[in-house]
Structures are given as structure tokens and as C-alpha cells.
Amino acid sequence: MIETERYAPVIGLETHVELGTRTKMFCGCTTLFGGEPNSQVCPVCLGLPGSLPVVNKNAIEYTIKIGLALNCTIASWCRFARKNYFYPDMPKNFQISQYDEPLCIDGYLDVVVDGAGGLGDRLPPEKRSFRVGIERVHLEEDTGKSLHVGGATGRIHGADYSLVDYNRAGIPLVEIVTKPVDGTGALAPLVARAYVTELRDLLRSLDVSDVRMEEGSMRCDVNTSLSPIGSGVWGTRTETKNVNSIRSVERAVRSEIERQAGVLDAGGRVVQETRHFHEDSGTTTSGRSKEEAQDYRYFPEPDLVPVAPPVDWVDRIRTSLPEAPAARRARLQAEWGLSDLDMDALRNADALDLVASTVAEGASPADARKWWLGELARRANEAGTPLADLAITPVQVARVASLVADGKLNDRLARDVIDGVLAGEGSPDEVVSARGLAVVSDEASLDEAIRAAISANPDAVASIKAGRAGAIGVLVGAVMKATRGQADPARVRALIEQRLA
Amino acid sequence: MDLTRLTAAELSGKLAAREVSAAEVTQAHLDRIAAVDDRVHAFLHLAADAALGQAADVDKRRASGDALGPLAGVPIAVKDVFTTKGMPTTCGSRILEGWHPPYDATITKRLKDNGVIILGKTNMDEFAMGSSTENSAYGPSRNPWDLDKIPGGSSGGSSAAVAAYEAPLAIGTDTGGSIRQPAAVCGIVGTKPTYGGSSRYGVVAFASSLDTPGPLARTVLDAALLHEVMSGHDPMDSTSIDAPVPPVVQAARQADISGMRIGVVTDLSGAGYQPGVMTRFSEAVELLEHLGAKVTEVSCPHFKYALPAYYLIAPSECSSNLARFDAMRYGLRIGDDGTRDAEEVMSMTREAGFGAEVKRRIILGTYALSSGYYDAYYGKAQQVRTLVIRDFEAAFGQVDALVSPATPTTAFAIGERVGDPMAMYLADLCTIPSDLAGNAAISVPCGLAAEDNLPVGLQVMAPALADDRLYRVGAAFEAAFNDGQPLLSGAKGLDG
Fold this sequence. Notes:
The complex is a heterodimer.
Chain A: E1 7-18, H1 57-69, E2 73-74, E3 81-84, E4 94-97, E5 104-113, E6 128-141, E7 145-149, E8 161-165, E9 172-178, H2 188-206, E10 218-228, E11 238-243, H3 246-265, E12 273-278, E13 283-289, E14 299-300, H4 311-319, H5 325-336, H6 340-348, H7 352-360, H8 365-383, H9 394-405, H10 411-422, H11 428-435, H12 443-456, H13 458-465, H14 472-482, H15 489-500
Chain B: H1 8-16, H2 22-40, E1 43-46, H3 48-63, E2 75-79, H4 106-113, E3 117-122, H5 156-163, E4 169-174, H6 180-186, E5 189-192, E6 212-217, H7 220-230, H8 248-254, E7 261-265, H9 275-290, E8 294-298, H10 306-321, H11 342-353, H12 356-369, H13 375-398, E9 401-405, H14 421-425, H15 432-437, E10 440-448, E11 455-462, H16 467-480
Parallel strand pairs in B: 2-3, 2-4, 7-8, 7-9
Antiparallel strand pairs in B: 1-3, 4-6, 5-6, 5-10, 9-11, 10-11
Helix pairs in contact in B: 2-3, 7-8, 8-16, 10-12, 10-13
């Protein structure tokens, strides 16, 4: 990336995460995803006249968890604030948020990047670690969701009409804001990506959100600015919205660096504005200009009392935090004896937790990795679903692996068993018995098949006796065919060798 | 026996003794409303059928021996700012015309659960902004003492209904004086409980940090009975206080102030106060002293800044609270003809749906909260609020209760102040400090001003959660004043 030889990028990320609390932030409505539009609403989350908010204590606890995991200081006293602006999907035309008194402040998250990000030989091959500062973590309520029908842009302007679904309105939303990250140079896009990936893993380990970017439960805004190297001042930043996948985070930063460098090269001035990222082209277009920015008229929310988390409660949350994902990855990598590359592959496939659970159920790390990254990754890819959404559990995968290890299934049969499990035919053992997939293991019928194979293939037997060991494959093949694949090929081979020895 | 002339306490006794039925009591009040409300215009919505249905239910339950609350079968008028299932709720505004809330306010529900018969919804200044009901989109209510005079506001429909014997009880809300000022100018009793002592859930918000629902009645004991039924902790309101309701009924029955230390707030007097009001107030203080109170003068030097601070804080909060009226989900919608976008429809609806005073306060509040002005206006006003609270703390370090006139003047003429917002705002001069501090305060009738023969209110102020002191002082005063006869009993009023 040639631009970063002339310009130093500074990035900043604002991440919104929908918390996985059972009920909404200020009322008792369910937060389940995918309900009929406007079926999960009440006077409070619809902002009906006279209704009042009551804080969901679980949401406070989850936010404190996140803050502690990000090494933040937890406020001993803070308030909610109203952020005032008009939009049809905002039931009250103000959002209950936090302004100058966030629940968590001043933390950090360490991320590691390496050259595997497609920048080739411009990068040093070794891994580099960056500490991303966390400015604040605060709690707010989500808005409803607008669907603009008609018009070219899918935005409110030019639409024929708009539909609003308030099911999402009032779902607790945590905003995690980084401090400006500088000194990353050409690695800026990778650092952005690594941060969001690490944050996702962290949030998942805390079990506070399902962190699914595709369902919008985690959303990212990316700030980018450039300044001439050595200038000592930061450039004007843009805020890129609509960045809906981890890969897009990296692309959005890269695209903004290229665009802004072009503007600066041409002697132009970067305009402070909101930009929209487009998945298809990987580029951003101008949104609303921040120079005519709205005045949100923040003031302390008078309908709520201040939040003052007791110190002993915060301490209890602190001691209950799980192992940090980075430490856990290092531990598992050592326990499983994997290379960096293997580990990255697991993480990129989002298979780490699945493999860990499968190993915890008794499978060997190699087997667990093989099934999840091989056969199951292929199935998920075909179905277009995340690996974790496949209709098979780590317990079931571990069972398949153990059946293979015990010689009760061979790999081909194991794939049939997986077919059956994915098709909803029950547990691996149920599929084995229902489909009659057990390996032929009784000595008598195997002996019978081997004897038949030997007498039917005198040429192969002669070759073997002449020292061409490869010819044994013909005999093994014949036995497998005779048993319709339900024998353990390794065992068949051993028995043939024994007989011909 | 004219059932409408009885107090709630008397009705309660007769209902319990089954001398009268709730149906009879309700019908008597509906008849009274039919006879006089075209002149008083206290009600925006009458719920005759629902009221009679509720009354029949109470009678049935009483007949079957159910244990009923003290006010079961007693009728009430409800300010149109409380949400009511099955009845419209307009807040005196066009923008909510025809809105039927799908839920009951906590207080509405408590009234229903206690068998209190809801006669209907009373008129008010639009969104509780005003001191005369002249800001109602549905026309003003009138003062039963003199139909050309205002009944006070914003709970003017409620005060007029009680003073006109259309209902023995009413509920209102007090943000800057909206219960005490109408009670004072109508010659009845009105209480602003401690902030957080009565639930705001289902009270359409004007200024969230100030709004306080409270009772209006013709006697101190009646106000206490209603205070007790409507108050108490509500988990649906985060600012609701989780503490027992102060023993207000017991205090009203006790009515003993011997040895009580009462302070006269010297800052709530002087220029702008009607002489006849000050005369009655001085007599009232003498009577309190005669009843055994130790009276001293107390200065609260920051009270003079309370009114300007209030007119920054309340509009700021209202500018945000009223943002939800945008034509998208309920209420009025103007301009939705398929050619205009959402923003234009919002704008046209708010232009047509809000009255001048509401718009004035939204603009004022929007300005006070805007970036660059926040510190000088909203921020400064909050500092003044703290100073007012400290004045009260210092005063309550010396005395148990404070007294002042409830209003600087008696009821003014309809139309007199509509063109002069500042003059209108001054009607709340004496009541605003208690709202800013969140304290409890009451207005009790203390005679007629000589100039105009209109009622004067004595305001009693107590610390937060000491609401019972209001009733001790109020009841003691009431018993000794006018030979214990309600001031209203001497009114020519409607029937003269």
C-alpha cells in the first residue's frame, strides 16, 4: 500500500453490540430475533405517552463484564443521558444513552497482526502486537428498524413508503469506542480487522452477546484519517458506517486510506463526513456531512436514577470473568500442539470453540480439527451457514470420532453418519443402527470375504509374493466391495498381510 | 340529602354503613355535572357508563362482604394527563385528540383497584403548561366562585370540578404549582406530595424531574384519604421512592400543632402580592400561633431565582418529552397525502397540533439545551436548583414546616393574562420552590380577599417524606378557621 509511505493513517472504531439479555433495556419485552414485526413491543419500548423506563440490571452487569474484560475502570456513579433527534424508528425521538458519564472508561485490548493479510512482501513476516486503547464502553437502547420501500437507494429519501419494526427498539446496546490508534502505518487495515476479531471473540467468551455481524447484533463504524508523515498533526477524519462483516472492516479502512490519499495528492481537503460502505464494490460513498452535524442536546435522563454499582458487586463480576480468548488460544495451541498457521485456520473458520468442545468430549485434537475443518466446513459452506449453525453438536462429532477410533466406523461410513445426523435422524449411534452402517467386524465373515478375494485374484497374490506390496490394494478393494464398504480397511489390510505372510 | 355536598369521608362512612349505594352517589354527581358543567367546563370526557358500571361492581362486592378500601364507591375526577384504558387521554392538546391509551397509569389502576369511581377526565392547560386552563385546546374551564375568572391551572378542570360539587375528589399533577395554585384560587385543598411519593407511570410527562401527581379535595382529611390511596412505591417508575407512605390520614385526624415550629418565608411576600392575599395570610399565621405553633421568620434568599431557573429546567425537559408527538404512531397526523416525506408530516402535525404556549416552551427548552448554551442556561439553572434545595435544608434545620401565600393574587379574569406570558408565569411564584426541591407542600383555603371576595390559599411546605406535617398543620388550621366550616360552604358560586 504505497499511500502509507507518504501518509500516516489514524483509525478509530466504534462498535455497537446488542446484548443477549432475555429482556429489553428498559422494559420486560423479549429480545428474541426474528419475531413478527411489532409483536415484541409494549408501551415503554413504543415510547407511548406516560410510559417510563426501568433499567435492566442484567444489562448493567453485562456492560461491566465487558468493561472489566477490556481492562477499563468501572464508574462508581454514572447517569444515562438523552440523545435528542427526530427519526421515525426512534419511538421517543430521543435515545436513552450515556454521554459524559459512561459506565466504563479507559481500557485497552491487545491485538496481534501478521503478514497473512494479503499485503505480501511489504510487510515484515513476524507478528506484531498493538495495544488498542479503549476510550469508553457505554450502554444505550437500540432503535427500531426501518424498511424503505421503493426509490433507488433503499434510504428514506425517495422511498415510496417506509415500514418500521419496533421489535428491536429498546434492545440493550453497548457502544465500545477506541481511542485513536496511530503508528500502525500500512498495517492499519489489518489492525482494524484484528481488533474487531479479538473483540468478537472476547464478547463471545463473556457470553454477553451472540455477536453476529450478519444479524446486526454487532455493528461497526470505522473512523479513518490521514496526515502527511512527519507532519505531527492528525488529518480530518471520516466515519464509515454500514460495515457489516469483519472482512469489510479491513476493506473499509483500506478503501478510505486510498480515497483520502487521492484527495490529498490532488491538493484537496478531506471533508469531515459520514460515509457508507458498499460490500459489492468495497468502496465508500459520501453520506451526511458532519459539518452540518446535528446538535443532540444531551442532558441527564430525568426518568432514571443514577447507576452506582457497588464495589463488591463489581469485584464479584471481576472474579467470575472467564479466561481471556488470547490466553486461551495460546494454551489450547500448546495443548493441541498446533502450528500458528493451523491455529489461524481454526480461528478464521470460526471453529475454535467447536473444536475445543469436541476435544472436551473426548475426541483427539487432530480428529476434532479434521472433522470440523474438513467435512463439516464443506457442508457449512455448501449450505451457506456459519459452522456453528450446522445441525450437529460437538458431542455428536466427538462420538463419530470415537466410533472411527474404535474401528466401528471407517471414514466413509462416518460421513454417512454425519449425513444422517444433519438430516435430523438422531444421534450418531441412532443413525448407525437405523442405517445399518456398522463396520463388518466379525472375524468369520471377514475371513470369508478375504478367502474369496485371494482365490479370485491369483495375479495380485503372485505380485504381492513377488514383493510388489502395492498390489495388496486390489485385494483390500475387493474385500471392501464384498462388504459394501462396511469393513475397516486398515484391519482388512492387516488380515490379508497376516494370511499371505 | 344532597349527596354532592358531602365530603369524601362522609360518603365513605355512609357507603360503609350501606346508607347509600355507590350507584346513588355516582348518579348524584353525574346529575350535578349535567346541571352545571356546560357553565364550568371542568370535564373533557365524561365516562358515565363506565362510572355506573364501576359503582354497580362496588355495590355488588360490598353486598357480598368483600373488604373494600376507604374510598370504594366515592367518585373522582381525573386530570386528562393520566392514561386511562377505555377513555381518551388528550392532555388538553389537539395533537392527542382521539388517542385511547392501551394502558392505565399506575394511579388510575390504584383508583380502580380501590373502587374509586372515575367520573371522567378533566380539562387542563395543554400538557400541563399554564396557570389558568386557557392553554387547553378545548377551551378554558371556569372558576365556580365567579365564572368570569380562571379556575387556576394547569389542573384547573380538577379544581373547578371539586369546587363546583361535580366531584368530591380529583387528582391533578403539580410541576410548578399546578395542583396548589388551582386549589388556592378555587378555595379548596390541593397537595403536591414529595416527588417520587406518587407514581408518574402513565402520567404524560411535561417535566420529568418535577411532575408530581397529587390530590384535590374540599377538606384536608379528604385530601389525605386520597393521598394515601394513590401514593406508594411503584417499580414501574424508577424515581418512585421505596418507602412507606407517610401517615397522612392519621396526621389529618390528629390535627395537633402545639409546639410545632413554623417558619414564615419572608422572601415570598412584598411587591406583586395582592394586599387582600397578604392580609388573609397574616391572619392565618396568627391563627397558627394561637393554636400553639412557635412561629418565626425564615429567609430563603435564593427563592427569587427559582422562577427563572424553573423556566429553563421545565421547558428543557418538555422539549425532549414532547418530541415523541410526531404523527408516526398515534394521535394527530397532518399532511400525509402521499406527496410529503416523514419529516414534513412531523413538522406540519406539530405546527397544527401544539398550541402557542407549548411551542414557546419547546423552543425555549431546545435553545437552553443546545450546544454552546447548555452551561449558561440548563447547567446554571440546575445550580440554582441546588441553592434552592440548600435554602430549604437550612430552613428545615430551624423549623418543622414553612408557610407562605399559595399564590400572589386571587383568581384573575379569563383573558387577562393570555397575552402576557410573564404575568401568567408569576402565578406560580410561591409554589415553584417546592417543586424544584422535590419537597411536599399543600394549599389550604384561608379566607376571601377583601378586594374581590375570592379565595386565598395558605401554603404549607414540609421536607421530603414529611408529607404528614402538611396534614397536621392543614387540618389544625381548617378546624379552627371559619368555625370548621369549609370556605366553600359560604360561596354564592353557581347556585347563588
